[in-house]
Amino acid sequence: MLLAQISDIHASDKNDNLHRLRAVVEWLLSIRPDAIIVTGDLIDDDWIDGYSEIEALLAQHQCPLSIIPGNSDSPHIMRQVLGQLDCWHHPSALHTIRTLGSIRVVGVDTRVDGKTYGDIICHLDWLGETLDIVKSSDETTILFTHHHLFPTGIDPIDKIMCLGAVQFEQFISARLNKPIAICSGHVHRAMFSTIANVPSYICGSVCAANPLLLDDVRTPPVTDPPAIMLHDFRSGRLVSSNVSI
């Protein structure tokens, strides 16, 4: 099962990020993933037309498409424009669950209205119930959010990370049926760590990357092209690749 993760497109009629997404889509056509998940921040500047533009590009793949919102998105408009995707079944939050063979793709809507940071605390009950629904012993969950759940060391970005990261780590640590991986976006840079001994990934962005500002002294240049992640699950093992395009 090959799952492509795309994040942080930030499409607007004032930038060329749709062009960057087209390059991503063309590259993916060469590898043909079994499913795609977009982990938030599809548009910028309230460019509502961007949702249908993005959906039309991704529809070229003719594979299951799941989307969760980011802080720059409008959930209400997303439901209106993208409702035909049939990937949201929660009455309020845009959580998503999709079963792909023995893999369950679970996306948690961590956005907070009017804020750039996220919050997962209020969704832990739902997530616990969702993780407990296991139909067979070989079923495996990959968990997705927009906001990152481990500190990156980039101070301006960590100030707007997901609230409840400590509680989330305790929540995951206490579970017998842990996800096989925790995957996020938001940072505009690929980064990797662990949460409660679970591999945790931050997908790079389609839009321009953020600099790796690990302190106030060193300011490295930004040379990163658009980036995505590929999550390849086979024979009970997940291998995740960062792909620059």
From TrEMBL:
Coiled coil: none
Entry keyword Repeat: no
Highest taxon of source: Bacteria
Gene Ontology MF terms: hydrolase activity; metal ion binding
Domain Calcineurin-like phosphoesterase, residue spans: 2-189
Pfam families, per the entry: Metallophos (PF00149)
Keywords: Hydrolase, Iron, Metal-binding
Family: Belongs to the cyclic nucleotide phosphodiesterase class-III family.
Protein name: Metallophosphoesterase
